[in-house]
Amino acid sequence: MSFSPFPDYKFKSILDISTDFLNEKEIKLLLLDLDNTVSPYKTQSPEKAITEWVEGMKKADIRLFIVSNNRGSRPKIFAEALGINYIGNAKKPFTAGIMRAIEISGFEKKHTALAGDQVYTDVLAANGAGIRSILVEPIKFTNFLLAVRYALELPFRRVKKGSDI
Length: 165
Ligand SMILES: [Mg+2]
What we know:
Elements: E1 9-11, H1 19-24, E2 29-32, H2 48-59, E3 63-67, H3 74-82, E4 85-87, H4 96-105, E5 112-116, H5 119-129, E6 132-136, H6 144-153
Parallel strand pairs: 1-6, 2-3, 2-5, 3-4, 5-6
Magnesium ion is lined by residues 33, 35-37, 116-118.
């Protein structure tokens, strides 16, 4: 367990996370933040590129699981559209939602990672839960506050020292 704000790995988009990368790192369960990671805020269905990426993961036996702080209906809508499990209102950076997802999925922590766009919620929660953290760039800034938050996170948007990527 660590309270480091630095991610283990970094990608531009979840679409850049390949099955080869996950296999190499022995990640079998990939938890996904929803808003601005899988999809921009306010959209009501996943884009084709995401659907295809999810299908590729399933074929490679990578288990996906949405762990979202969103308290509305979006986690359920996206999880059902993508045919994967979900937890909404996960309250990241607290770790209970992540722990529950791991328990439901039945994988070990050492085979689990969480991919998300925010340092203060996603990366802190993953590191605190003792799983690996993958930081991606937010899909888009729909308002000024998101841009400010991103700017505040900039010092931490680089991988941990000693990361093996
Ligand atoms: Mg997010």
